[in-house]
Amino acid sequence: MNRPKKQVYYHLMMLPGMIFLIIFNFIPMAGIVMAFQNFSPVKGILESKWVGLDNFRFIFSLPDSRQIFVNTIIISLGKIMLGILIPVCFSLMLNEIKVKFFKRTVQTIVYMPHFLSWVVFAAVVQSIFSYDGPVNVLLTVIGMEPVMFLGSNQWFRTLMVTTDSWKEFGYGSIIYLAALTGIDPGLYEAASIDGASRWKRLLYITLPGIMPIILIMLTMALPNILNAGFDQIFNLYNPLVYESGDILDTYVYRVGMLKRQYSLGTAVGLIKSVVGMILILAANKLVTTFSDRRMF
Questions:
Q1: Membrane-spanning residues where (predicted)?
Q2: What string of DSSP letters covers 71-112?
Q3: I need a labelling partner for 16 at 20 to 30 A (CA). Which of 8, 88, 105, 273 fits?
């Protein structure tokens, strides 16, 4: 009898979040029509000239468009792969530590970068990898030439992927540590009695035990293939590395906001949203296929 009343409370708790979502996510979607117009702020959406798919044709005819898509996908794929691999390895190693004080200290230290904004963390990265920073000092000591990491098209993508993993791997390991606690301890005891080494217990008990979570996290990350991380790239890139570091989000910012080509910026954003939606549906299908869970 009280169940509907309890559900009302739950819905009231969700109400502020839903209002926020409607105001800042759903209502602005009306601006999608700008992608099909030659939008002029003076004329507004209602009076601007309709141009059909001309903005999309123009985007794909640009010589830089292919490089921007390639940069976005390479950086995103690198972040997704390392974003799964490093937290899994770290959680497996942390799970083997038996001294609780040391374990909690390590957890606290590696979780901290996640709570720093990219504005702050980018300053740390710039200090460490600057031309006269500690990394280049170390390279000089061992007889190597210093490298301009943030100005090199050869190193910029690698730096973006590794620094993102550095910032997020600690926080990302939480879910795998939780999955490890769900494995039946009786399996380890039985394996020890049978003489299984630690490596074989890891290979045949631990990894299969957390594999469903790894697959779910991987499929949930796929829709972000075109989200290479605006905050990080924007705070670390410069015109020297546009060739390797310019991604869709930074291109939309430069074209849409700085050059005031609002229709072109909206068209690029719409392409990204459509691809993201297709990948979300594909990821949902993969999750349903490889596990008994659904994303929605």
A1: 12-36, 68-94, 106-129, 169-190, 202-222, 262-287
A2: HHHHHHHHHHHHHHHHHHHHHHHHHH---HHHHHHHHHHHHG
A3: 273
**Residue 58: both structure tokens together:** 């123009």
Alpha helix segments (H runs only) across 142-252: 156-172, 174-181, 185-193, 198-201, 207-221, 230-236, 242-245, 248-252
Structure tokens at 75: 């950086």
CB 225 within 8 A of CB 279: yes
* Backbone φ and ψ of 171, nearest 5°: -65, -35
* pLDDT one-digit tens code per residue, 1-18: 556 677 788 888 889 999
Is residue 241 within 8 Å of residue 231, measured between CB atoms? no
Residue pair 135/128 in contact (Cβ under 8 Å)? The answer is yes
Q: How many CB atoms lie within 10 A of CB 259?
A: 11
- C-alpha closest to that of 261 among 75, 51, 71: 51
pLDDT tens digits, one per residue of 36-94 = 988 888 888 888 889 888 888 888 887 788 888 899 899 999 999 999 999 999 999 99
Asked if residue 128 lies in contact with residue 185, where contact means CB atoms within 8 angstroms, the answer is no
Average pLDDT estimate for 260-272: 84
Looking at the predicted structure, is the pLDDT value of residue 167 above 70?
A: yes
Mean pLDDT of 244-254: 85
CA distance 67 to 45: 31
